[in-house]
Amino acid sequence: MYAQRPEARPATVEVLVDGQTVRVPAGASAAAAVLVAGLPALRSTPIGGAPRLPYCMMGVCFDCLAEIDGVPNRQACMVTVAPGMRIAPQRGARIARPGA
Amino acid sequence: MSGHDLAIVGAGPAGMAAALEGVALGLSVLVLDEQDAPGGQVFRAVEKAAGDPALAGDYATEGTALVRAFRAAQGVEYRPGTTLWHVDTETLRLSLLRGGVAEEAEASRLLLATGAQERPVPIPGWTLPGVMGAGAAQILLKTAGAVPAGPVVIAGQGPLCWLIAVQLLRAGAGPVTLLETTRVSVATAALQAGGLWAGRRLLLKGLALMREARARGLRVVRKVRGLQALGEGRVEHVRWENDCIPCGTLLLHEGVIPSTHVTRALGLDHRWDAAQFCWRPALDGWGATSHDAIAVAGDGGGIGGWEVAVATGRLAALDAACRLGRIDAAERNRRAIPRRAALGRAVALRPFLDGLYAPAPEVLAPSADDTVVCRCEEITAGQVRAAARLGATGPNQAKAYLRTGMGPCQGRMCGTTVAALIAAERGITIEQAGVLRPRAPFKPLTVGALAGLAKDDTA
Fold first, then answer.
1. Which one, A85, B8, B133, B357, has least CB within 10 Å?
2. Is B146 in contact with B171 (CB distance < 8 Å)?
3. Where do the domains of chain A lie?
4. What fold is seen in the domain A13-87?
5. Given this model, what pLDDT does residue A94 score?
6. Separation of alpha carbons B155 and B164, rounded Å
7. Signal peptide: which range, if any (chain A) (predicted)?
8. Considering the entire predicted model, what is its pTM?
9. Would the pLDDT of A81 be above 80?
10. Do residues A34 and A77 lie in contact, with contact meaning Cβ atoms separated by under 8 Å?
11. Are the beta carbons of B129 and A51 separated by less than 8 Å?
12. Which residues of A sit within 8 Å Cβ distance of B?
C-alpha cells in the first residue's frame, strides 16, 4: 500500500482503477495510481497465474502491463494519468478468439 | 519529414546537456524522450516536484536549473512521450511510437542517452507484489509524492539505498530498515581504489546522507546474506541468514547498469566492464561508438552518475558539431577542456564506489534452483542451469531452449542473470557467455501502429 502526501503533491486528477475512483497528482503514471489505489495485483501472469504489481516503474520490467482506456498490454508506468482514464487489470493469458 | 543535424534519444542529464551544447554550436537538435517531461530518472518530474521537502538537494537545485535551461533553449525540438523502436543504421531513419501512433524522423547523427536501469536482484520471492526496485519507490515519490505505508525494508547496497531511505523518512514513511549486503570494507575499497580526496565533495555528501538517515531513525543491518521475500499473495516478511522481520514493502537495489538494449540491438561493439559487472558500448573519449554516425553519452555508456552524464553529453555534442563541419577539431578540443575537467572531478570517486559496492556472486547468479530469474516467462535458475548442462552456451542459446528473453521485457530483466548462471554452470566467464542480442522493435508495438505508418508512405 502507498500513502499520498497531499501537502507536497495535491491529488487533482481522478482516474478509475479496476472500477474504483482514485485521485492522484498531475504527472503521476497509471502504475502509480494502481499502487495508490491499493490493488492487490495489476495482472496475473500468463504462465503461472501469479499476481504481480509494478516492479521497476521505469519501463524496463513490463510487470505493470495493464488495459488502459480499453487498450491491453500497455506499460502502466509509462502512461501519464489523464482525467477519467480507465486502468484495468489483465488476468492470465489472453484468449485469442473469445467464444471460439 | 525534416532531417535534423542531431537526434538525441533521452532527455536526462546527458541528453539535455548534449542538446544545450548542440544548439549553442548551431546544430538543429531533435530530442526524443520516452517520458512526458524532461529530467530522465534522476531528475524525474522535477518541474512538478522540486518543492517537495523530501526531495531537497541536487534534485531540486541542479535538476531544476538543467531542465529550465533545456526548456528555454532555442533550436531544440523536444518530442516527449516518444519511444524509439527501430533505427535504420544506413540512413539513420528513426522509427518512433508516440501516443500509440508510429512516426518517423531523420537525422545526420544519432546520440543515444538512454541512461541506466537497476541491476536485477533475483532473490527468492522477488516477484511477489510489494517487492520493487529502490529506484521504483523513488520514481513514485518524485512523480506522485507517494510513499509506502507500513514497514519498509530496503535490501542491497549502493548510494541510492541511503538516499531513498532518507527521502522516505523525510516524507514520513516508516519504520525503515536497511539490510546492507556490502561485503567489502570501506578501508579495503579505499586502499584499492583511492580517489577519496579528488572525490571528496561527493564523499562528504554521502556521509552527510548517512548521518541524516541515522538521525531520522533508519535501522541498519550490515553484511546481510541469504535474502528472501516471503508471503502469501504479497510480501509479508523478509528473511535473511540471521533473522526475519515483517515487511510491507521490500525495495531491492544492487546498483544500476547501463541500458544497452538499443546499442546491442544496433549491433554496436560492446565491452564487458569487469569493475562494474556489466556490458557497456565501446566508446572513445567523445562517446563515439563503432558506428561512425552514432554516439552514446551518460550512464548508457557506463555508470557515472548525473554529473558525468552532463559532461559526456556535452563532449558528444562537441564531437557531433566537429564531424558535421561546424567547428574544426582544434576548436572542439579547446571547448572540451572545461568539460573534461568537470568529467575528471565527477568520476574521481567512482572506482571506490565500484569496489565497495561490487555485487556478490549470489546477486549475479542465484544459487537456489527455484528462484525465478525470467519474470516474464517465469523461468527459474534451476531451469537455466539445466539448459546450460544440455548445451546452451550463452543467453542467446538459452532463449531458444527456455524463452528467456522472449517475453515482453525482451530480456531486459533476465539477460544478465541468465548469462551469469550459464557462465557459472559451464565454468566460463560471464564475458565468454556473451550478451543477449535484442531485435527491433526495441519495445513491443501493435500491428495497428505499424499499419498506420504504411498508410503514410502510400499517401
1. A85
2. no
3. 13-87
4. Ubiquitin-like (UB roll) (3.10.20)
5. 73
6. 12
7. none
8. 0.96
9. yes
10. no
11. yes
12. 1-6, 8-9, 24-29, 32-33, 35-36, 40-41, 45, 47-48, 50-63, 65, 71, 73, 77-78, 80
Q: By the 8 A CB rule, do A53 and A1 touch?
A: no
Answer yes or no: do B100 and A71 touch at CB < 8 A: yes
| Residue A83 neighbours by CB distance under 10 Å | 9
ipTM computed for the complex: 0.95
Q: Is B406 on the interface with A (CB under 8 A)?
A: no
Q: Which letter does DSSP use for residue A29 in this model?
A: B
CA distance B132 to B152: 11
Instruction: Mark yes or no for CB contact B147/A3 under 8 Å.
Output: yes
Mean pLDDT (chain A) is: 94
pLDDT value at residue A10: 96
- In B158-233, the DSSP E strands lie at 176-180, 219-221, 228-230
Residue B347 and residue B260: Cα distance in Å, rounded? 20
pLDDT-flagged residues of chain B (< 50): 1, 458-459
pLDDT tier at A93, thresholds 50, 70, 90: confident
Closest CA to B181 of B257, B273, B253, B274: B253
Pairwise CA distance, residues B381 & B401, whole Å: 13
pLDDT, one tens digit per residue, over A4-48 is: 999 999 999 999 999 999 999 999 999 999 999 999 999 999 999
SS3 call for B133: strand
Residue B331, Cβ density class (10 Å: 0-12 exposed, 13-18 middle, ≥19 buried): middle
Query: Which residue in the block uniquely carries the three cell numbers 565501446?
Result: B282
List phi, psi (to 5°) of B315: -65, -40
Give chain B's domains with CATH numbers. Answer: 3-117+257-327 (3.50.50.60), 120-254 (3.50.50.60), 365-433 (1.10.10)
* 3-class state of residue B187 by DSSP: helix
Grid cell for residue B406:
522472449
